[in-house]
Amino acid sequence: MPADPDNPQLKKPDMYESLRDDGASKEKAARISNAAARDGEQQVGRRGGSSPSYEEWTVPQLKDRAKELDLHGYSDMTKDELIDLLRDH
């Protein structure tokens, strides 16, 4: 599949959109879809790690992750708002 003309950095735009629909952040979806284009989906699936869904994280854990990503404005957010922030960064 050719690269997406709207975002030439995405090598598998359909996979990217599917990952975004499943709740992956923009960064994670791009990283996975580009690795799949480079190495093949089976390779990426085999070496992928596991992490609990953001819904399973505590608010302090979500705030720590937002801080790691250098996001701003999260200190007074609810859990749902933090999850949206992390997924949409």
Characterization of the model:
- This protein is mainly α and 89 residues long.
- The protein has two domains: 13-48, no CATH class; 54-88, no CATH class.
- The chain is built from five helices and no strands.
- The longest helix is centred in the middle third of the chain and has 14 residues, at 26-39.
- It starts with 12 loop residues before the first helix and ends with a helix.
- The relative contact order is 0.13.
- The model has no long low-confidence stretch (mean pLDDT 83).
- Residues 1-59 are annotated as: Disordered.
- Residues 9-30 have a biased composition (Basic and acidic residues).
- Pfam families: DUF7218 (PF23855), Rho_N (PF07498).
- One of its GO terms (biological process) is DNA-templated transcription termination.
Helix/strand structural class: mainly alpha
The stretches of 5 or more residues where confidence is low (pLDDT under 50) are: none
Helix/strand order: HHHHH
Question: Please, what is the average pLDDT?
Answer: 83
Quick structural summary:
Pfam families: DUF7218, Rho_N. This is Rho termination factor-like N-terminal domain-containing protein. With 89 residues, the chain is mostly helical.
